Amino acid sequence: MPNPSRDALIARLPKAELHLHIEGSLEPEMLFALAQRNGVAIPFASAEAVRAAYDFSNLQDFLDIYYQGMAVLQTEQDFYDLTWAYLERAAADTVRHVEIFFDPQGHTERGIAFETVLDGIERALQAGEERLGISYRLIICFLRHLSEEDAFATLAQAMPHLARIHGVGLDSSELGHPPAKFAQVFARAREMGLHVTAHAGEEGPPEYVHEALDLLQVERIDHGNRALEDPALVARLVGEGMTLTVCPLSNLRLCVIDRIESSPVQRMLDLGLKVTINADDPAYFGGYVNDNFRAVADALDLSPDAIVRLAENSFTGSFLPMADQIAHLAEIAEVAGD
Ligand SMILES: Nc1ncnc2[nH]cnc12
Ligand SMILES: [Zn+2]
Fold first, then answer.
1. Known catalytic residue: 88?
2. Any note on cofactor binding (predicted)?
3. Tell me: the pLDDT tens digits for 85-124?
4. Which of 84, 153, 244, 289 has the fewest CB atoms inside 10 Å of its own CB, making it the most exposed?
5. Number of domains, the chain
């Protein structure tokens, strides 16, 4: 049930967003505007018609449309505009820190230079730090439906820019593309000093979460829903203090859960898992981070303590240095105590 004082707490609490695909923040209006600006034909008559097409029955359904949508992103300015629009929206949700994913292969395979993408996103992130006070980390994701060789080629493209890229992730079609397929390239990324995270247990079985831990040696699990099917795995995740970046509205729209009341957030908290709330692809799934907080809070009747815990986890699960994490926790305590 909606609860105004809980909504006010969500609105005020400082938070970090750890699971956000910047290409997934491409709102239909901007998709239309960029299609016109760049002379790209799209098979929709209006932004409303685009929204109406966002009716997915699984992850692949969504990905097919998501990769099509990317075609309108062509210039450095396009990537800047996309990222800036997200940051303004995040600031309105009292987001203080973002760790965003981008999919280089979704662009380089269309003939867009890696640097065009990186320069535009990073210029907006720097402006966001200066003008909105939002700190950031940038994570390149390997598309798991492509080969490990392709991932190595992407890592090579990132190599001259290592001071600007903080981590690697793994996304796209999960079933049939287990983490094991990318063990070598993740080992290389770790040797290069990059942080590592991977989507696992969104549609894939608990075994994929085990593989992400054992073979990729990830620092976070993106989603992790299906880990709950394996009590020994849950115990391991709790023991290791592993952060799970859960995305409630994404789960709903991709039919990972049948209704929002089935979100695993409260169950995960009760089990002692370090769960965080994130938007994933907000333009496609109907909400930004505070919408995700409100949706689960209303459906599961989350307590104020649970909401504060979720905000705390977003900082302690981030790649920020400990001193910065502690400063953010102090700010949360101040806001929660008001
Ligand atoms: N939820 C998701 N799962 C896998 N790959 C993605 N790419 C963008 N969003 C994704
Ligand atoms: Zn994701």
1. no
2. Binds 1 zinc ion per subunit.
3. 999 999 999 999 999 999 999 999 999 999 999 999 999 9
4. 153
5. 1
The DSSP 8-state label assigned to residue 146 in this structure reads: S
pTM, 2 dp: 0.98
Residue 338 lies in a domain: no
Q: Which residue, judged by its Cα, is nearest atom 5 of ligand 1?
A: 172
Pick the catalytic residue: 27, 99, 174, 202?
202
| Predicted-complex ipTM score | 0.98
225 CA from centroid of ligand 2 (Å) = 12
Gap from CA of 261 to ligand 1 centroid (Å):
22
Tell me, yes or no, whether 336 lies in a domain.
Answer: no
**Those residues with Cβ within 8 angstroms of residue 177's Cβ, 6 or more apart along the chain or in another chain:** 144, 145
Q: What is the pLDDT of residues 131-184, one digit of tens each?
A: 999 999 999 999 999 999 999 999 999 999 999 999 999 999 999 999 999 999
Pocket flag, ligand 1, residue 172 (CB < 6 Å): yes
- Count other Cβ atoms within 10 Å, centred on residue 152: 16
Atom of ligand 1 nearest to the CA of 66: 8
What domain range includes position 244?
A: 4-331
